[in-house]
Amino acid sequence: MLYLLWFKIKQPQSISQKQLMEVWKKEAETAMPAVKAGKIKGLWKVSGKREVIAILDANSHEEIDETLENLPIVKELGHSVDIDVYPIHPYENFYELIKKLIE
Fold first, then answer.
1. In terms of CB atoms within 10 Å, which of 11, 30, 45, 64 comes out highest?
2. What is the model's pTM?
3. Which domains does the chain have, with CATH numbers?
């Protein structure tokens, strides 16, 4: 199953920008192998914002929860990270459904 994950990171007042970037570096070092392995189907940084969008391939809702709770950025900045999760499917599948519905 595919999920769109939208991460919105707020810098806590208690840490410097350098500390935030150090946490973000750990996050990137965790994400890059998952991209290469195909678990993360796409990963984008939103320009000008502290936001990241990912397409994740997961076997269950529980796997999404487990994955998110184990991310370095969530472990270290959990209260400062908002994550929107949307289950998604290929538009081609929706097109096939539309054809069935109008028959």
1. 64
2. 0.88
3. 2-102 (3.30.70.1060)
